[in-house]
Write a structure and sequence with these properties.
By secondary structure, this protein is α/β, with parallel strands linked by helices. It contains 10 helices and 25 strands. It is globular and about 55 Å long. The chain binds flavin-adenine dinucleotide. The site of flavin-adenine dinucleotide has 37 residues, from helix 1, helix 2, helix 5 and helix 7.
Length: 413
C-alpha cells in the first residue's frame, strides 16, 4: 500500500481479517507513525500532546503481520512489471497495490510573494507551532473546515486571527443561516472574518504580511496560513495509464482501470452516493469506508461501495456544528424542514427527496449523526415520520434505524 493513513490502515485491517497470512507492506514518506490529520487542530491549540495523534503503535504492525516502511517515498509505479520505485532508488514488487496517498494542500494563487504556512501534515503543524511562538497576529486565507479549525486552534492559543474568504465560511457544508451562527460564535471569540473578499496580492515587509483585497484594502498579520483547499497527491503517477480526473478514478469496488491497482481516500475519485458519479471526498469517514472496501476486494471478494456521503462535524468553543449529505443550498431542489435560532445559537435542518432523507444539519442540538447516516444510506422511507424526526431528531433517528434492523432480521419486540 502506498500510504499509511486512515484509508490504508482500514484496508490493512480488512485484509488481515479475510486473509491473515497475506503479506502486507504499508509505505509512508513521512518519518513517523501513522496519524490522523483530524487530530492536528488539537495539537496546534495545545489541547493534546504529540503522542495522542498516532493512529497505531509501532508494535501494532508486527502483531498484525504487516510491515510499516517509514520515511520511504514512492516516486514511480510500473503497472506492467508490478513494481514501485522509491526516491532512494530501490524497487519493490507487488501482486496487488493500493494507492492511498491522501492529498496535498494547495498554495495561494495570488500575485506577489510572502512566506506562507500550510496546515495539512504533522510537519506543517509542528512548523506552525514553532513559528507562532511570540507572534500574535495570524492571517488565514480560506474559509473551509481546515481554515476554521486552524482559526479555532489559534484563538485557543491566544492569537488574534483574521480570516479572508472569497465567498463565506463553510460554504460547502452549511447554508448561509447556519454559517452565520458559526460566524457569530467565531467573531465573539475575537476572530475577524472578511467574507466576500478575494485576495489579489501578497507582500511582506519588516516581519508583517500584507494581503491586498480586490476592493483596495489591505489586511495584515505577522504570519500567513494558506488554507484554500486540497488536491489529491497523484502527480507521481502521471503517464502510467491510470484513469484520472482530479484524483484516481475508481469503480464501486475501488478498482482503478489498471489491473490489480486499487485506490482509496483523499487520492481517489470514487462514486458519490446520490449520483453514483466519481468524485473527491476528502473526509475521514470516506477514507475509512473506501479503505475497508478496497481491502476486501484486494482479497478477491466482490464487495461494492454504496458511495460516499459528505459528513462534517466541527466542535468549536463548546459548540458543535454538524452536516450530513445534501445541506448547503438545497432549498430549491428538496423539501426542507428548518428551525433557526440565532439567539440560542441553535440550528436544525432536514432535507427530503420524496420519502427519503437526503441531508441533515444541526448546530448545538445534542444529536448524533450516526443514525442519520444510516437512514440516508439505507434509503429508509421516512415519509410518515418526517415531523417527529424533525421535532425529536435524536430519539427518532435511533428508533428508525432499530426498526429497520428489526424488520430485516424478522425479530419481534
Ligand atoms: C488539519 C486537518 C483537519 C481535518 N479535519 C477533518 C475532520 O474534522 N473531519 C474529517 O472527516 N476530515 C478531516 N480532515 C481530512 C482527513 O484527515 C482526510 O480526509 C483523511 O486523513 C484522508 O485519509 P487518507 O488515508 O486518504 O490520507 P492521509 O491520511 O493523508 O494519508 C496519506 C498517506 O500517504 C503517504 N504518502 C503520500 N504520498 C506518498 C508517496 N509518494 N510515497 C509514500 N507515501 C506517501 C503519507 O505519508 C500518508 O501516510 C482534516 C484534514 C486536515 C489536514
Amino acid at each position: 500500500m502506498i500510504g499509511a493513513g486512515a484509508a490504508a490502515l482500514s484496508a490493512l485491517q480488512m485484509i488481515k481479517s479475510i486473509a491473515p497470512d497475506d503479506e502486507v507492506a504499508l509505505v509512508t514518506k513521512e518519518d513517523h507513525l501513522p496519524y490522523s490529520p483530524t487530530a492536528l487542530p488539537y495539537l496546534l491549540s495545545g489541547r493534546i500532546a504529540r503522542h495522542s495523534v498516532w493512529l497505531r503503535e509501532e508494535s501494532y504492525f508486527k502483531k498484525a503481520g504487516a510491515v510499516l516502511m517509514q520515511g520511504r517515498e514512492v516516486v514511480e509505479v510500473d503497472p506492467a512489471k508490478k513494481t514501485v520505485a522509491f526516491s532512494k532508488g530501490k524497487k519493490e514488487s507487488y501482486d496487488t497495490l493500493l494507492i492511498a496517498t491522501g492529498s496535498d494542500a494547495v498554495g495561494p494563487s495570488v500575485r506577489g510573494g510572502a512566506d506562507f504556512l500550510k496546515f495539512h501534515t504533522l510537519a506543517d503543524c509542528e512548523r506552525l507551532v514553532q513559528q507562532v511562538q511570540g507572534k500574535k497576529e495570524v492571517l488565514i486565507h480560506g474559509g473551509g473546515l481546515v481554515a476554521m479549525e486552524t482559526a479555532m486552534a489559534l484563538l485557543e492559543r491566544g492569537c488574534s486571527v483574521k480570516v479572508v474568504v472569497r465567498s463565506r465560511i463553510l460554504r460547502k457544508y452549511f447554508d448561509e443561516e447556519a454559517a452565520g451562527i458559526i460566524e457569530d460564535i467565531f467573531t465573539e471569540r475575537g476572530a475577524e472574518i472578511f467574507s466576500g473578499h478575494s485576495m489579489v496580492a501578497l507582500s511582506q515587509k519588516d516581519g508583517a504580511v500584507g494581503a491586498s483585497l480586490e476592493d483596495g484594502t489591505t489586511v495584515t498579520g505577522q504570519l500567513f496560513v494558506n488554507c484554500t483547499g486540497v488536491k489529491p497527491r497523484v502527480d507521481f503517477l502521471a503517464g502510467i495509464g491510470l484513469s484520472m480526473g482530479q484524483g484516481i478514478v475508481t469503480d464501486t469496488r475501488l478498482m482503478t482501470n489498471l489491473e490489480d491497482i486499487y485506490a482509496a481516500g483523499d487520492a481517489a475519485e470514487a462514486p458519490e452516493f446520490f449520483t453514483s458519479e466519481a468524485g473527491l471526498s476528502a473526509i475521514l469517514l470516506s477514507a475509512v469506508n473506501q479503505g475497508k472496501l478496497a481491502g476486501a476486494n484486494m482479497c478477491g471478494q466482490e464487495r461494492h461501495y454504496r458511495g460516499w456521503i459528505g459528513v462534517n462535524r466541527l466542535p468549536f468553543f463548546g459548540n458543535v456544528a454538524e452536516s450530513l449529505g445534501i445541506g448547503a443550498g438545497s432549498e430549491e431542489r428538496f423539501s426542507i424542514l428548518k428551525d433557526v435560532n440565532r439567539e440560542t445559537r441553535q440550528f436544525k435542518k432536514l432535507a427530503f427527496d420524496g420519502e427519503h432523507l437526503v441531508g441533515a444539519t444541526f448546530i448545538n442540538c445534542g444529536t448524533n449523526l450516526g443514525p442519520f447516516y444510516q437512514i440516508i444510506e439505507r434509503k429508509l422511507d421516512v415519509s410518515k415520520h418526517r415531523d417527529i424526526l424533525f421535532d425529536r431528531p435524536f430519539e427518532t433517528s435511533i428508533w428508525l434505524v432499530r426498526e429497520d434492523e428489526r424488520k430485516a432480521t424478522h425479530l419481534s419486540v
